[in-house]
Amino acid sequence: MAWSSPYLFFTQSAVKLQPKQLAYPMQAPAIEFASADDIRARQQQLLAAHLQYVYAHSPYYRSRFQQAGIEPQKIRGLEDLPLLPTTSKNDLQQHNQAFMCVERAEIVDYVTTSGTLGDPVSIALTEKDLQRLAYNEAISFLCAGAGPGDVFQLMTTMDRRFMAGLAYFMGVRKLGGSIIRVGSGVPGLQWDSIFRFSPDVLITVPSFLLHILHYASKHGIDWRSSSVRKAVCIGEPIRKPDFSLNALGQKIRELWELELYSTYASTEMATAFTECAAGRGGHLHPELIIVELLDEHDQPVPAGEAGEVTVTPLGVEGMPLLRFKTGDIAQLHTGSCSCGRNNPRLGPVVGRKQHLIKYKGTSLYPPAIYEVLNRIEGVEKYVVELSSNPSGMDEITVHIGCGQAGKTLATSIMEQFQARLRVKPKLKFHSTEEVSRMMFPAMSRKPVKLIDRRNL
User: What's this model's pTM, rounded to 2 decimal places?
Assistant: First the structure.
């Protein structure tokens, strides 16, 4: 039997979704509403094709398979995934070119990761990879209740080697919407664009959304009379593990009755998990990605438990990955959603594995610290700094930007930390401008809330 391209399924979908052939309104993929058994069967089919492709074209994976004595055709289904090697960010950094599956002339775009866990990782994309990104974002926007004809305001950068900004732009076009490319920052320009072009949807980092609301309040802008009805929130969680809004999400909703949709993605996975209106986790796109949750021994965690999000993106042509460990800890939810989809949902990320803090007998992740700070009036901006003391133990310093630093605010902050987390970090007060500079260093693509200086 002749071997055929494992990406034929996506090529066909992409052709159908070209703007000139698009039959409005665009529909969500039928596989997302199929039975759990049908979804599993489809993913197993795509996994087999994926393994064939990486073995045939990826020098890195072919070498790993041969070293381990693994033959792709012997992987019968999803239950055999633990037999395959995992891929770390360190693997991508050290052997970057060995992941390349196409000739250099076929690459049309180069991007890098944000470098949150170290040096940025380079990723090369072909034309098919860009079309896959667009398709991913288009069906993600559909999941969030947006559709053809909607106007989106993009409040994140498209430059600086940032994959997400380009993906959002292309996704809106494939969806049949229109987009206002304002970029990050500049609150005045954001509001001018909102009232000039009347967008329906904002694509934004939630803490920046809160920032422009404070700007509007200070400058007498009536944001409630604008056309905006929903916000797709990127880069930061707006929900707790039980799906209720966290402090940041609550603050936004108290000021503006928007529909808030959380989304989770990374450059390496090239796929987004976006909430529907039910707000019960980001929906997995079965034809684009396989997700596992692993323990510290790279074994699947029991159903219902949190583990390291490990992904196998499907349909990637330039630099496909297999069982890539993201470093993020989350929980997978199964069962039908009220929106009618039967695909699994990924819960809010509770933290990064590498950022686990062990502080005087208490273990916690940085988002728990953010949650406390987001609840305290008077804390306008903050950056959490982690370091190691001479004994090698973790230390926490919170840099706080506020109008007036005083004993009352310091006391309130320490009381909240003690009550909610049973920790007492060091506090350092600065002007709001000073903390803003810490949050947005040169070439940053999103706010920096954590500086990890520990000797890990």
Answer: 0.83
